[in-house]
Amino acid sequence: MTIFGQDDAQAYLRRLLRQERTPHALLLAGKTGWGTLALSLEFARWLQCRNAPEIPTDCTCTSCQKAQQWAHPDIHFSYPVVGANAVSTDYLTEWRKAISDNLWLSANDWFQRIGAENKQGNITKEECVAIVRKLSLKTFEGRYKVLLMWLPEYLGKEGNRLLKLIEEPPEQTVFLLVAENTDAILPTILSRCQIVKTYPLPDEVVAEALQRHHSLDTERARQTAFLADGDYNQALQMIQTLESDDARLLLEWLRQCWRGNGVELVRWAEQFAQLGRENQKKFFTYALHFLRELLALKVNPQLPARLRPAELETARKMATVFSLEHITQLAARINDNIFYIERNANPKALILDASLGIHRLIKKPQ
Length: 366
Known about the structure:
Elements: H1 7-18, E1 25-29, H2 36-48, H3 62-68, E2 75-78, H4 92-101, H5 107-113, H6 125-135, E3 145-150, H7 163-167, E4 173-179, H8 187-190, E5 194-197, H9 203-214, H10 218-228, H11 232-240, H12 245-259, H13 262-273, H14 277-299, H15 309-321, H16 324-342, H17 347-363
Helix pairs in contact: 1-2, 2-3, 9-10, 10-11, 12-14, 12-17, 13-17, 14-15, 14-16, 16-17
């Protein structure tokens, strides 16, 4: 398994293993694109390695071989899926293929793979019941029973069903929770976990990985790493596409908002509603990134912005028109939209209301 970066977190997890102080519930907090999921999968392998606690990087014991193929019988996976009664095992083939292809994939990448379309992902009541059942069994061949849950924030209130199990798990059982947004996790779950934080990858680490694994020349790797802002998955997407669809959509939307033509805004809202909820959230998340860079540009035009050339040109033009108040109010409205989409608001009505509000905002005298 190829992992890089997060040296401090890696060292800490190895120290826990060496000192035999692995807690029964660990929560690794950080974006998947920073390598958080990759590190968690690697730690699950370390827990089962027959050479533990001193684990060679290239260990070929039978446990490590199975773990690296995502097929160890004592490493169980849980992740958000779509469908009212769906469970993770319904998508196990797709999951193994997804992480084999890309250990840094985003939640949106995953949902597009499983055809989420207009459905939101979740971790269901049935999945919680299945977890309790799996962990009640004895180990087959490993040292531990490991439950690796990616994105536990999709549990919502169903997390209450796992509280007792997390607090008092069966013997030799380890929960590995891998979260991007700890604010969306029940506090009662957080209080039962030892938290290990990960951080954006340094630009030089991302650039070196792009050169080594994708044969990019030094200059392009350096520029891509800078724009990716510590997110390796974002860097991979950049080298595959010349332009971001989210960037194009955002600029088109802001132009429509500026013009304020009601008929065109309704047409745009209808198109936006067809994207599906996960893509809508992804779009608004990019919009927040753009506004953050725009704000930095407004405060200090000399600072390098993590935007592509076309996006940067637009941001510079907007910086001459938008006030700091405009930008902060725009960001607040977009952040609210993410909240409402997650709660199944009508996307057409939501984006139309936001468009009209933004039109009034940007036409208001500074």
